[in-house]
Amino acid sequence: MKILERQLQDEHAAKRALMGGRLAETHTLTRNRKAVNGAGAPVAEIPLESYLYWQRREGSGVWKDKRFMHEYLRDNPACRVKAQGTRLQVGYGTCQTFEPRVKFHKSYPSA
Question: pTM of this prediction?
């Protein structure tokens, strides 16, 4: 029984080492990305093996769960992608005129 446990631990360690190498490789290839019109900015780029492993383990809706994604990206920072916008907004909200407001004014009657 202990031999089987040891063999499973060794296989698990080998898979983690392999996955770590692939995550580092993915990180070097995908440092900066641009947002896609209509789809928004990418948040992460996840290797296929990792994607299928967690989908099989946790269920089909696991990647839509914000809490799971937060934890996954915390544990695998190499999967995080920096995204840049594709459009530039200039002069947004500058046509407003600002006047100083008087919050409270008390007048006393002359006696």
Answer: 0.49
